[in-house]
Amino acid sequence: MSSIWRYLLGTALTAGILLYPMARAAADSSLFSVFTGSALEHHLDPSYSNRWAVGFDNDFLVPGSRDQDYTYGLSILHTGVDLDGELYFAPLNLIEGMLGLDPGSRQAVEFGLYGFTPEDIEQSEADPNDRPYASLVYAATRSERIYPLRGTVISSQLTVGILGLDMVGDLQKGMHSVIDGDTPQGWRHQISDGGEPTFRYSLARQQLLGDPTDRLEVKHTQSVSVGYITEASWGLSLRTGQLNSPWHNFHPEQASYAETSTQLTNRSVERFFWAGIAVKARLYNTFLQGQWRDSAVEYSSSDLRHLIIEAWVGYTHGFPNGVFVSYGLRGHTSEIRHGKADRNVVWGGIMVGRNLE
Predict the structure, then answer these.
(1) pTM of the entire structure?
(2) Which domain holds residue 197?
(3) CATH number of the domain residue 132 falls in
(4) Do 271 and 316 contact (CB within 8 A), yes or no?
């Protein structure tokens, strides 16, 4: 059996094993709404209709000097209601129909890119003892179902993208030339160099722990994903301070590098700290293991740790005009078992957004 068919078969089997239990939980939420009247919440916050945010991640936003692993990411996101009627939502709607999920009460579309580098970016040759260069340029559609009487939100996302494009490395080179930094020399050795299509589908269930107040919220989230990152995870997160936005608007626990990391607030003043931790059982990581095409540096499954711990902490400030600014630190334990690449990964992120109503 060729490698491409092994990959497709393995992805299909893993999708069934991981997604079926979560889809059943979502279906149970739908049944619950029939018997209790806890219908999907379409009108809790009318400002859902038009929100924008821009995010920038970079390892230099961490105190100290770093330029390795998850090195940078850029994203732009628009959230609203009734976006699912747009043609680009058709693939996500098809998957959700097959899983028996309720129609979403809020949707989002996101575009972005991000990249990974080894520690020594000035080395021009491939280094088999360090992590490979890797990149993704992506577009994502997202849908959320809000069940207020249960304190539960079911979220799904479909991301399609291209691995190995030159533009991610070219942007890094351009940024480094502006700040007079080291020039990365090894992007031609990146995973799937020259371009290769990829995808990822994820399903997450957020649930409140106790009754939220205007000073403290705590929740836990279970999620699964299949595709270029295939994993199952459980996370615990909180935010504390002056809270004026709905608890389900804020979900840093669902971030996957640059993806879905946008935190959206109400058109009201609020300021809060946030933190959390997650345990992830990661079965497959294209950014380390490659996909269908051979790459200069790849790791086998036996070279990787499949259980990792991720943690995050940050601060968000929302202004009366709907603008918010957020800064966070994030990291996870080492995913690679040996060599120079056996190190923890840490990065920082800045996000700016606005609720336009």
Answers:
(1) 0.85
(2) 3-355
(3) 2.40.128.140
(4) yes
